[in-house]
Amino acid sequence: MVQLEFPWRDEASLQRELERRTGLRLSLTLTDNRSTVMTYRPCGADGVGRLRLHRMFLSASPRVVDALAKWMVNGRSRRADRILDTFIRGNHHVIRDGRPGPRRLCTVGRHFDLKSIFDSLNARYFNGSVMCAITWGRLPTRRRRRSIRFGCFSEERNLIRVHPLLDAEYVPEYFVRYIVFHEMLHAYLGVGRTDSGRRQIHCAHFKELERRYPDYARAVAWQENRTNLGRLLRAPCK
Asked: Using one digit for the tens of pLDDT, what is the confidence trace for 175-226?
C-alpha cells in the first residue's frame, strides 16, 4: 500500500511553534518564492513580527525550526546558519521546481505497518514530539550482499527509511520496532557536533537513551545472531 507524503504540520501549527520558541507574536506567510526562501521583519507598532517562509518549512524538523527561531531572535549565528543552509540545500529541488507535488511513501508492508509502529513509539517514548515521515526503502538491485543497513534518518528530508527486507515473516516485530525507535532517536536528538566540528551521530546521550529501550537487549541479540543476518543477506530482491 502506497501513501502520499504531505507536510507534517500546517501553517497555523508552524506559526504557533515559532511563537512558542521565540516568545514573539508573529504573522506568517508561506510562499513559493524561488529567490527568497525566508525573510523576517521585527515587530512594529502593533507588536507583531512579519515572517515570510517558503512552504518547504512545513516539513522542517524540530531542530530546523529551532534554528529558524534563533535566527529570528538573535540574527545571524554560525550554528543556526549551518542548520538552515543544510535544510535549504537538501530541498533545492523543491525551490527549483516550484511548489512540490507529494512524494510517494510506502508505510504498509506485507507484515508490518511502519506508520502504526511509529505512532505508538512516538506516543509512548517521545510524547508525540517526533515530527518526521517514515517509509519502507527501495528493494536493493544487487542480489549478493555483504552487509545491510537496517534503517536511516535523513535530516535534510526529515525522513526515516527502513530496509524493506525487514518486512518478512521471520523477522520479529520487536526488532522492527527497535530499528524504528533507533531512527526516531536520531530525529529527536538531531545530529550533534564535536568540539572540532565533526558530526557526532551516536553521542553518549543517544546511547544512554537507546539502552533504556525495553527491548534493546533482545533486539541487539537478534541482530548479532549470524543465522539471522545471513538469512537477510541471502534474501531475494524480489
From this structure: 999 999 999 998 888 766 555 556 567 788 888 999 999 999 999 999 998 8
| Residue type present at position 1 | M
Helix (H) or strand (E) holding 90: helix 78-90
Kindly give the pairing relationship between strand 38-41 and strand 103-105: unpaired
Supply the DSSP symbol for 170.
T
pLDDT, average across residues 45-74: 86
Compute the distance between CA of residue 222 and CA of residue 174 in angstroms, rounded to an integer.
Answer: 10
Contact 155, 59 (CB under 8 A): no
Cell of 115: 506508520
* CATH superfamily of domain region 106-234: Metalloproteases ("zincins"), catalytic domain (3.30.2010.10)
Nearest 5°: CA angle at 104, between 155 and 12? 65
Is the full-model pTM beyond 0.90? no
| CATH number for domain 10-97, candidates 3.30.1370, 1.20.272, 2.40.360, 3.30.2010 | 3.30.2010
Residue 215 contacts by C-beta under 8 Å, 6 or more apart in sequence? 174, 177, 178
Task: Supply the mean pLDDT for the chain.
Answer: 81
CATH 3.30.2010.10 maps onto the chain at 106-234
Task: Output 23 or 191, whichever has higher pLDDT.
Answer: 23
